[in-house]
Amino acid sequence: MAADEAILTGVARGDSLPTLRFYQWNPPCLSLGRSQSAAEVDFAACEAQGITCVRRPTGGRAILHRDELTYSITLPLDDPRAAGDIVESYRRLSEGLAEGLRILGVAVGRARPRKTADPAPACFETLAGYEITVGGRKLLGSAQFRTSKALLQHGSLPLHGDLLAIVDLLALPDSERQALRRRLRTAAITLEQALSRRVSFAEAAQALCQGISRALNVRLAEGSLSPAELELARRLQGEKYANLAWPTAPREANRLPVGTVS
Fold first, then answer.
1. Residue 240 per-residue DSSP state
2. Is 70 exceeded by the pLDDT of residue 78?
């Protein structure tokens, strides 16, 4: 998360190029949306399973980052692919992701924009407008954050594994845990389930690159974080993202173990 924000800062300043990034999490991590309460996390269960916690700069609900691919797209707001409001640019960028999944052979659908009820604790329990689905079940969840000059959109594609595992990491009464498990069984799907075969991180990333390049008419070149981005990411990691309560609480409070910046 620190690296994504560092890239966003660089793009907003004009110091960094528009960036498409793919990554995995080490160790596995439960990420919370920007405004989600940390009281929804069962920290003892996370610690017992070796799972860290972090707060995302974007909105949305809890995601377990394990057996999945995370992408991020960072663009200046004067880029034509970022044109329009959040919903319009979200729809446009997501079409590149959908095209990449089609290359893999996924029969993708798109959720219709709609009003949502009270927010659920888990991201993959509910559908937002234009999120990517298979047979009505959520396959890829995304969220977007904007500054005055740039946007960051990132999201999670479960490659395989147990989508119900997140339930045991949330602070819920037993009855609500069982209800959430039932909802997730019909609300979400992994890429392995969608294709009836396992797809590696590398294969999925390559297909998404091709889809984004084709749908958004961009030419991609492989790169890595610049020295300035790495320096800022490491500073943000220590000063901000190690504190799960960073939007509202002093930085000294609730400090947590976090993964390395790479």
1. I
2. yes
Strands annotated E in 128-193:
132-134, 137-146, 150-158
Closest CA to 185 of 243, 150, 248, 136: 136
Q: What are phi and psi of 166, to 5 degrees?
A: -65, -25
Local structure of 98: helix, strand or coil:
helix
Give me the CATH code for the 2-241 domain, please. Answer: 3.30.930.10
Which of the following is catalytic: 29, 46, 53, 123? Answer: 123
Helix axes 227-236, 2-13, angle to 10 degrees: 130
Reported as a single tens digit per residue, the pLDDT across 171-185 is 999 889 999 999 999
181 closest CA partner among 229, 135, 128, 125? 125
No. of helices (H) and no. of strands (E), the chain: 7, 9
Give the count of beta carbons closer than 10 Å to the beta carbon of residue 116: 10
The helix-helix angle for 201-216 and 86-104 (nearest 10°) equals: 130
| Surface-to-core class of residue 77, CB atoms within 10 Å of its CB (0-12 exposed, 13-18 middle, 19+ buried) | middle
CA distance 254 to 37: 13
The pLDDT of 223-240, averaged and rounded, is 96
Consecutive H or E run containing 176: helix 174-187
pTM of this structure: 0.89
- pLDDT given at position 246: 86
pLDDT for position 118 = 54
Instruction: Identify whether 46 is a catalytic site residue.
Output: no
Please give the structure tokens belonging to residue 129: 């407008």
**22 φ/ψ angles, rounded to the nearest 5 degrees:** -120, 140
